[in-house]
Design a protein that fits this description.
alpha/beta; 6 helices; 27% strand; Ribose5P_isomerase_typA_subgr; 28% helix; Ribose-5-phosphate isomerase A; six-stranded mixed β-sheet; NagB/RpiA_transferase-like; isomerase; ribose-5-phosphate isomerase activity; binds ribulose-5-phosphate
Amino acid sequence: MATQDELKQQVAKAAIEYVKGGIIGVGTGSTANFFIDELAKVKDRIDGAVASSEATAQRLRGHGIKVFDLNDVDGMEIYVDGADEITEKLHMLKGGGGALTREKIVAACAKDFICICDQTKLVPVLGKFPLPVEVIPMAREYVARELVKLGGQPKLRDFTTDNGNVILDVHGLTITDPVALESRINEIVGVVTNGLFASRPANVLLLATADGVKTLT
Ligand code: 5RP
């Protein structure tokens, strides 16, 4: 039976079919890293990439792929990234790697979000994986109190984001209405972004299973 890493590699390879040229938006994490390694094999087909984190930019450059500043790019056809959880409606919970804000920004500039996951990430309801919330440091305790009022148990991650902020991982949520919760958390003063990608879900989910890569739209 394939290991989780082998499944991640298979789905990363499958995503290359969506790479037609131009500039590609690239996510962050172990699945995105496998995608970057596959992208390197077809790098002559593209002009370059926009990275969703410093780590991704470094890996892209290591493969000789040109990294563009998002402000110098007039949109992208696709953004390719993993997720910590995803539903059949293609609502995602992301940010396990702490790159949620830049991921959401780069994804917003792309026509299609191609989500690449192994089968363990498909869930009926989001929230078993703690929901990351990026917060301006001085607002940390205020935001934590507001998140408790929403029924969560926030825990400070020992991590600083690429934007110089902190992350509260919110445990204990059962997210039955991800669109509403995404917008409710964003209303809390001091929140930069939360890891729900629901108001703009993925357009395509490539899901690596024991029976091969399945496509959900
Ligand atoms: C990083 C993310 C990642 O997409 C998410 O954590 C999945 O990571 P992996 O592919 O390593 O399982 O949102 O901020």
